[in-house]
Amino acid sequence: MLLYQSTLGQAPAVDFETAVLAGLAPNGGLYVPTQLPQVTLQQLEAWKGLSYPDLAHEILSLFIDEATVPAADLKKLIEASFSTFSHPEVIPHHELTGDCYVQELFHGPTLSFKDVAMGFVVNLFDYFLRRRGEHRTLMVATSGDTGPAAAHASIGKASISTWLFFPTGLITEEQVRQMTTIMSPNVHPVAVNNCKNGSDDLDGLISASFADAGFRKEMQLSSVNSINWARVMTQMVHYFYGYLRYAERVGAPVNFAVPCGAFGNMCAGSMARRMGLPVGAMIVANNANTSLSVVLGTGTFSKPDIKNTLASAIDISVPMNFWRHLYFSLEGDTDRLRYAWETYESQGSVQFSDKELAAFRKGFLTYTVTDENILKTTRSHWREENYLLDPHGAVAVAAARHYRPQLSGPIVCLATAHPAKFPETIRQAIGDLPAAGKHDSLEAARTAGERKYEFDYATMHRAVPAVMRAVMSDRR
């Protein structure tokens, strides 16, 4: 049985079910498998041509043993999770000029890549909890797309209550309404005003809630943010899928350009490469929030203030999943990671050695995309290729175009949201909003009734737990 341990060490290794339901390890570390399963070229060859759900079953079975989830049950969970996607391929691709391809991760129910993993993870939670006869309270911070995906996946599930925290004014109205117009009694959207550092401030609320042992036990807290291993694990599948579609032959390199914020999606790609997927370069594409470019360039991992950009879902300065990448890059040295984490938390910055830097940046390229370049890339691809990118897809494509001359093999650019979720940016880039920039579900939400809680950042640490307790009491 594959076991999972904390990136900070000093905590017992646990089984998959325990790691998933806990979200965070008791000492605040992130769960990682004690070893990564390895995939051979022969396996990859055998997987060519599989549908997305069937490929997901092959890969997820490497992490989930039959004693935890029998194969037949796992297949049903996967099929149920992807049955809500509007495209028959689940994740289609669009060809651009220059041997570049857009991987469209936004055909799920909330039009973002978060649906790719969130539906499965929440269904997995429900499966485990119903089997145990238990309940969990999920706390989810969102910079735009995680919240709607978690909200939709949670609808009607009596085993979970889902609290969705979003920073007022820092995500689009379309994203807000995807949460606030859900009337399911177990889904609780929470607007927080005056978040200077956006969703990073809300991550602080969740970390504090988990650190309060009494509150954590009382509420039976967990999370489906990308701190949960199951999210990262499930996101590995689309790297395998993109690779198998575009590799000239199994073993030839395929490059990936990924818009990066919390590093969850890129961490999944990094794990897939460590498992044996023959990925070429992995391009870390960020906006003006450059924590990842800085640490991969200089070895300095810090917490700068958030800068608000057109690619708002990656307006993140604390990329939590980078710690998982560090764990494997530094060969599971939990003592070193714990010291680095404590330094980072107390001083706001930690410096890694040249040797450590060489280990964790191997195979990565970085590129920073300005708002001006987001608009330029969106405009040029609409006019010249008749293809509409969302701001985050534009970040990935701009980075891919920058590195295209020096890379061999195809570049797969991850488009993480439907452009209809960012109409003002699309108008700013190309003028009138075309049909490709609209979606029926978002149009319907504009006139639907809303339900939400609202707090101020200055008082949320005291006020939010009180409200959560009151609601939990009513549920009981």
Summarize the structure.
With 476 residues, the protein is an alpha/beta fold. The chain is 46% helix and 15% strand.
Protein described:
It is a single chain. This protein has 476 residues and is α/β, with parallel strands linked by helices. It is built from 20 helices and 15 strands. It has a domain at 89-112 and 231-438: 3-Layer(aba) Sandwich (Rossmann fold), CATH 3.40.50. The strands form 4 sheets. It has a 6-stranded mixed β-sheet, with helices on both faces. It has a 5-stranded parallel β-sheet with strand order 8-5-6-7-15, with helices on both faces. Strands 1-2 form a two-stranded antiparallel sheet. The longest helix has 19 residues, at 114-132. It is globular, with a radius of gyration of 21 Å. The model has no long low-confidence stretch (mean pLDDT 95).
